[in-house]
């Protein structure tokens, strides 16, 4: 296999404001849910996700009683002050797209104000102008694992239907402000994550919920309706806008050819399709209604909700892909350390087991480039809408040498193998339009708040405790990715 990617293919990288920006108390920004997430040393967390923040602890933080603790997402890697330098580095690599998010609390500090924060709007004006200076297209997520903390405390996040109108006001504000600067938008990042991480994905304090499953699926319904409504708003403001889905994708294999294992894998993959079906087809799949009935989940659906979903589907599908998963039967013990914690086992929470055919990263992610090809084909075959791989990358330890280099051949190999599988999909007719690798510059980990888990082509001199110069250094992968982009992927096959 040889050849180039299409000349209009979007090459770039992806970040999230709460992991990148810093400046948490500057420019009129309010506190967000991500600002509450403290660092837990790996020796204690063992790499597990540390996102569950008790309501009582948030109250203590807001009262100033825990100010001496380490909150890495408040500092990020200080893109707030380094954005010109960072964007210049992205341009040096040849980016044609940069996926980023707007920090909701920078625009509406409490979330439910009627008037936006002009300083926050101006900051993103400056960022978009800098991107356009280098002909880099912004791909912007409205809510990426954060919301103003006031919305979580006051409304319990997306559990309240009030958030739909609040989110509409936020979206209308930024769509109007940036209607001539941004074309590609994603309303909510990895919208499926609310199933596993309700606080991160939905601003929900589970201890305040009477019925966890009921709350999660009702909150998700509110997110879906809000996403559809802001899609309509976007098209009314600028018909040239392109709105996309964003799902955290992990394709499931059966542990064996035993029918129970195959059925478990099918259930896992149906969970992925559940979200794509609503966003891309505008309908809840039949098996979802059966699941709701079985589990006594009664969604409160207003009269026009289902019509709104049906009439305002996305223009393209995007998804993150880091690993595949393996589903075992109900009698097998779960044995996979991965980003998403177990929350009991049923059709929407399959039992994950180790796939012995695959190597794993230092953080327990199973490395499977072919799984990306399978996932792309599945999404294309079901929906026939353009696809962007909006996150993919290798998070691992990097070592800065005495001459300020990082020799990360392991990252080059990981991304190369995934890109080659993407090229196979293109050759087979898939309308694959872009790739934004996760963390083109080192940022704070979403799940574990570590800096030591690095994804970037650019090394940032900063450790888990905020010590360092914040200086940026090009890794070996920086020059490699630059050549991939320059040759439109042809260098992958040399």
UniProtKB/TrEMBL annotation:
Active site: 391 (nucleophile)
Alphabetized GO MF terms: beta-glucosidase activity
SUPFAM superfamilies listed in its UniProt record: (Trans)glycosidases
Cited Pfam families: Glyco_hydro_1
Alphabetical UniProt keywords: Glycosidase, Hydrolase
Entry GO CC: cytosol
Domain of life: Bacteria
GO biological process, one term: carbohydrate catabolic process
Similarity comment: Belongs to the glycosyl hydrolase 1 family.
Record's protein name: 6-phospho-beta-glucosidase
Organism: Erysipelothrix larvae
Lineage: Bacteria, Bacillati, Bacillota, Erysipelotrichia, Erysipelotrichales
């Amino acid at each position: 296999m040889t050849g180039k990617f299409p000349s209009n293919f979007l090459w770039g990288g992806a970040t999230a404001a709460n992991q990148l920006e810093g400046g948490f108390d500057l420019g009129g920004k309010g506190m967000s849910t991500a600002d509450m997430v403290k660092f837990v040393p790996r020796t204690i967390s063992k790499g597990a996700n540390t996102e569950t923040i008790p309501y009582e602890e948030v109250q203590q933080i807001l009262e100033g009683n825990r100010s001496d603790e380490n909150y890495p997402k408040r500092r990020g890697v200080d893109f707030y002050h380094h954005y010109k330098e960072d964007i210049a580095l992205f341009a040096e690599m040849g980016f044609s797209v940069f996926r980023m998010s707007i920090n909701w609390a920078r625009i509406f500090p409490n979330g439910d104000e009627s008037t936006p924060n002009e300083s926050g709007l101006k900051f993103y004006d400056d960022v978009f102008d800098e991107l356009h200076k280098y002909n880099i297209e912004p791909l912007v997520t409205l809510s990426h694992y954060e919301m103003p903390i006031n919305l979580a405390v006051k409304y319990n996040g997306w559990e309240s239907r009030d958030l739909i109108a609040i989110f509409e006001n936020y979206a209308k504000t930024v769509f109007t402000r940036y209607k001539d600067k941004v074309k590609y938008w994603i309303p909510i990042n990895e919208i499926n994550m609310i199933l596993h991480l309700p606080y991160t994905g939905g601003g929900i304090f589970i201890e305040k919920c009477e019925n966890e499953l009921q709350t999660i699926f009702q909150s998700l319904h509110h997110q879906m309706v809000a996403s559809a409504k802001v899609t309509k708003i976007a098209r009314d403001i600028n018909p040239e806008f392109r709105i996309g889905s964003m799902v955290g994708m992990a394709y499931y294999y059966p542990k064996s050819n035993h029918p129970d294992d195959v059925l478990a894998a099918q259930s896992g993959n149906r969970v992925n399709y559940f979200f794509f079906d609503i966003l891309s087809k505008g309908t809840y799949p039949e098996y979802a209604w059966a699941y709701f009935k079985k589990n006594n989940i009664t969604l409160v659906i207003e009269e026009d909700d289902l019509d709104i979903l049906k009439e305002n589907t996305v223009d393209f599908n995007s998804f993150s892909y880091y690993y595949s998963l393996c589903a075992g039967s109900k009698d097998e013990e779960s044995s996979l350390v991965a980003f998403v914690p177990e929350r009991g086992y049923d059709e929407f929470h399959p039992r994950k087991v180790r796939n012995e055919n695959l190597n794993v990263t230092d953080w327990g992610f199973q490395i499977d480039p072919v799984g990306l090809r399978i996932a792309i084909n599945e999404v294309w075959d079901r929906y026939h809408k353009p696809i962007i791989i909006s996150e993919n990358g290798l998070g691992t330890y990097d070592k800065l040498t005495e001459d300020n280099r990082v020799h990360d051949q392991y990252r080059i190999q990981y991304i190369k193998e995934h890109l080659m599988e993407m090229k196979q999909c293109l050759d087979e007719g898939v309308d694959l339009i872009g790739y934004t690798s996760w963390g083109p510059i080192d940022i704070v980990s979403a799940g574990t708040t570590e800096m030591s888990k690095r994804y970037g082509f650019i090394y940032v001199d900063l450790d888990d405790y905020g010590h360092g110069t914040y200086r940026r250094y090009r890794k070996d992968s920086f020059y490699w990715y630059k050549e991939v982009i320059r040759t439109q992927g042809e260098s992958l096959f040399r």
